[in-house]
Design a protein that fits this description.
Blueprint lengths: L8 E2 H26 L3 E2 L2 E2 L3 H24 L6 E3 L1 H24 L1 H16 L4 H22 L8 H6 L3
Antiparallel strand pairs: 1-4, 2-3
InterPro entries: DUF1468
Organism: Sinorhizobium medicae
Protein name: DUF1468 domain-containing protein
Length: 166
């Protein structure tokens, strides 16, 4: 798991993992750019020319981060994430994941109302009679701003059919 697995995940392991993920992303950008053409033609650069070199920069940055991790954090035993920090991170990430799932299923307005209300209720320790109107108010505000003001329809899920919107 890590160099110092008794105390949690080491900073060295996290640095290597993030650098590897960004490196894979850079390789994917380069590969995709080669598919659409990353060379130079008589007319100028192909469509993938600029993205290819951006992908290359991402890969080089990832390699620099790997080298930095080896020189600065290897063998230090510095803990990046322990049990207490994991609970704090989970208390933030799990509601965001639930928001994404509910929004994909029921639409952004329902997801936003539930997320704001639940976050205020459970993390902010507000009363339900404050949390629920706040969540609904934010969703109504977003509806007015995006749907009416900017005329940009957002994902509404089955709510759209229930209310006959559009």
């Amino acid at each position: 798991m890590s160099e110092n697995s008794a105390n949690g995940i080491s900073r060295f392991a996290v640095e290597l993992g993030v650098a590897a993920l960004t490196g894979v992303f850079g390789i994917a950008v380069c590969y995709g750019s080669l598919d659409i053409g990353a060379g130079w033609t008589d007319m100028g650069p192909d469509a993938g020319y600029f993205p290819f070199y951006i992908g290359l920069l991402i890969v080089l940055g990832s390699l620099a981060n790997i080298a930095h991790a080896f020189f600065k954090h290897r063998g230090t035993g510095e803990v990046f994430l322990d049990g207490a920090r994991t609970r704090v991170v989970a208390s933030f990430l799990l509601p965001i994941a639930a928001f994404a799932g509910v929004s994909a299923w029921l639409g952004l307005y329902v997801g936003t109302a539930l997320y704001i209300a639940a976050t205020m209720l459970f993390q902010g320790r507000y009363k339900w009679w404050i949390s629920l109107p706040a969540g609904l108010g934010v969703s109504i505000f977003f509806f007015i701003v995006f749907e009416i003001g900017f005329q940009v329809p957002l994902l509404k899920g089955p709510v759209e059919a229930w209310f006959g919107i559009y």
